[in-house]
Amino acid sequence: MGHSHGHDHDDGNAPHDHDEHSELGEMDLRVRALESVLTAKGYVDPAALDALIDTYQTRIGPRNGARVVARAWIDPAYRDWLLRDATAAIASLGYGGRQGEHMVALENTAREHHLVVCTLCSCYPWPVLGLPPTWYKSAPYRSRAVADPRGVLADFGVTLPETTAIRVWDSTAEVRYLVIPCRPRGTEGLGEDELAALVSRDSMIGTALARAPAAQP
């Protein structure tokens, strides 16, 4: 761990940061151990398990972020505040704390799509997104997101028009990002709760789009 980039944990006050990381790491390790056992036994495919973990282990986190996004979609004044001072706007809804000290919100539009990566370690906004997904910490994602963001998005099943520029943001120990996905079409009549249900964790990292509303039977 000899690297000391200004952007990450400084060795001078390492104990605090490292405790924090190892404590979170332990929970993560338990989940991953369970994941590999179940996958090896053929009980679940990894994608289904990721969805399960997302619901069970991190539902609190991403649901917080989803509320922030839904509020931004329906309240222009809140949206402006979020883009101007995300830390305060997010804290106003009661979400904040360690790993989310300084937040910046990035708004996806038809012209520009934002993708978040942490090239150095795995800095991640816990208070709004919960537990980082396995792939977020993986070396291929961390290097390819910067070198070939369009290819990475395609791997996630997201194909954007050539006219949409893709901007990649490198998360650091000082700044964590929250992507506000484009509001899906056909959601004009939906309330805040219904809108929040369309916002996935991955859409707030930029590797997915917000879900379209289910067609009414």
Short description:
The protein has 10 helices and 4 strands. The chain has helices spanning 14-40, 46-56, 60-74, 76-84, 86-91, 126-129, 134-137, 139-147, 149-155, 192-196; strands at residues 103-107, 112-117, 165-170, 176-180.
Mean pLDDT: 79
What is the straight-line distance between the termini?
Answer: 55 Å
Weakly predicted, low-confidence segments: 1-24
**Strand percent estimate:** 5-15%
Element pattern in H and E: HHHHHEEHHHHEEH
What's the number of extended β-strand segments? 4
* Name of the CATH class of the largest domain: Alpha Beta
CATH fold name of the largest domain, please? Nitrile Hydratase, Chain A
Report the C-alpha radius of gyration, rounded: 17 Å
Write out the strand line-up for the largest beta sheet, numbering strands in chain order. 1-4
Helix content: 40-55%
Structural class: mainly alpha
CATH architecture of the largest domain: Alpha-Beta Complex
CATH superfamily of the largest domain: Nitrile hydratase alpha /Thiocyanate hydrolase gamma
The largest β sheet comes out as: 2 strands, parallel
Whole-number count of domains? 2
Tally of separate helices = 10
Overall 3D form: globular
Task: Characterise this structure.
- The protein is mainly α.
- The chain folds into two domains: 46 residues, no CATH class; 145 residues, Nitrile hydratase alpha /Thiocyanate hydrolase gamma (Nitrile Hydratase, Chain A), CATH 3.90.330.10.
- It contains ten helices and four strands; from the N terminus they run αααααββααααββα.
- The protein has a two-stranded parallel ribbon. It has a two-stranded parallel ribbon with strand order 2-3.
- The N terminus is likely disordered.
